[in-house]
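In this section we turn from sequence analysis to structure. A common task in structural bioinformatics is to predict how a protein folds when a small molecule is present, because the ligand can shape the pocket around it. The inputs are simple: the amino acid sequence and a SMILES string for the ligand, here flavin-adenine dinucleotide. Study the lines below before reading on.
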Amino acid sequence: MRVSAMPDHYDLVILGAGPGGYVAALRAAQLGMKVACVDKDRNLGGTCLNVGCIPSKAMLDSSELYYLAKNRFGRHGIQVGGVELDLPRMLARKAEIVKSLNDGVAFLFKRNKVTFVHGTARLLGKGMVRVEGERPAELEAAAILLATGSEPAALPFLPFDGNQVVSSTEALSFTRVPEHLIVVGGGYIGLELGSVWRRLGSKVTVLEFLPKILPANDAEVALILHKHLVKQGLDVHTSTKVTAADRKGGKVTLQAEKEGKKVSFEADKVLVSVGRRPCSANLGLETAGVRLEERTGKVVVSGTFETTAPGVYAIGDLIAGPMLAHKASEEGIAVAEHLAGKGGHVNYAALPSVIYTHPELAAVGLTEEQARETGRACKVGKCPFAASGRAKCLDDTEGLVKVVTDAETDRVLGVHILGPRASDLLAEAVLALEFRATAEDIARTCHSHPSLSEAVGEAARAAWSVAPAVVRRFSPPEKR
Ligand SMILES: Cc1cc2nc3c(=O)[nH]c(=O)nc-3n(C[C@H](O)[C@H](O)[C@H](O)COP(=O)(O)OP(=O)(O)OC[C@H]3O[C@@H](n4cnc5c(N)ncnc54)[C@H](O)[C@@H]3O)c2cc1C
């Protein structure tokens, strides 16, 4: 391998061009730093853009339209006989969206003078990064940011084969609709992709080890979603532990234990969606003195995202916290601003999360259970979408908005929206948490009519503690 004699010097070298790395690169460049971003994939955007958020939402939106055209258009008085699935076109549309966004990131790099280096990177210690690939290079950096993300975790007795036993990456691109798809794992990725193939015609069985799906979500709201998924035809088995697998004659048979009984399931495809593990191996972390959490393999960082090696930072799926694209981006911006002396930070208490099933489940802040566990008195206000004029016009009335508040101060602690366009409706709730708003603040905010957002206002009104609100108006403002 030939490496150029003099290493190129940068203020910041970033390993990984996912939503953590590329957003950090752009922010750092805008703040005046000389930045290089290395990725082993030429298609910029990481997991999110190439095999995660974007292609999964493209398939969810297309499959939803197919389902609606087949099953619901008639209710609007639109007769469309002979609706047919053109899966190659659907997959091509998904690829076109991904490509246009890849090109968008490349354009932003160029415009902001971020140097993209294609190759596999690892740390050499003392501010040096080695890049291996077509054009090997050594980069010298005042600061290094690790943003190498995560990859699907396999089960030991059920390794991926890329064809019958697959990860989310392959399940985004099946070239034929599986007859029977088993999804091992009732988390958001499994439920989203299970929904896609169910709408396109597969029999879908979900096997979840825990007693409920989506255990991190508000229990009441997650249970309502569970019931809707079952109504849509997903066969969901909770408290079911898959223990062994056998592949024969084009089929996979899974052995499992469900409530003390042995059960088995046979399918032509199995999606293993049991979590993701950080890409922290082969990065030269030991050489550089970067410590990992023993159990998870995640990089240990300080409050400013600095690792145990001074000058080396880490963000995104590689460190603790929920594996979400916007969390990675927020952390990337915070590191860039910290390096520029601007004291960037991330407010994890106002970090939204969305499950893009139908209905969508979007949440921010504490669940009702978490709020009660804090020992404070809580209030809960709800508004079902069945009461929303706009939801009725859309023929999409499933779900509700649930607002959890502190009964004493009326402060909004959490908002959980299950319903149409919940992902977009949640923005108001995120802002409310960011500004430490009360339920009264949301209830008194004028919501346009008829709109889905009225349900957010009504749920807040239901949670609003009127008496303390009057007291509060004459009290000094709460310290922020
Ligand atoms: C199917 C699916 C759906 C998802 N949907 C959502 C969603 O709707 N919303 C959401 O918020 N999140 C979603 N996610 C999660 C989201 O994709 C991740 O949280 C996010 O991409 C993490 O960003 P990151 O920058 O930390 O890492 P990544 O996006 O994983 O990027 C890491 C980059 O580092 C590169 N890299 C790794 N090692 C090296 C090396 N040694 N040298 C050079 N380059 C390297 C990789 O090639 C990759 O490009 C989804 C994930 C999946 C799989």
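The chain has three domains: 8-152+277-346, 165-274, 350-466. As an exercise, try to locate the residues that line the flavin-adenine dinucleotide site and compare them with your own expectations.
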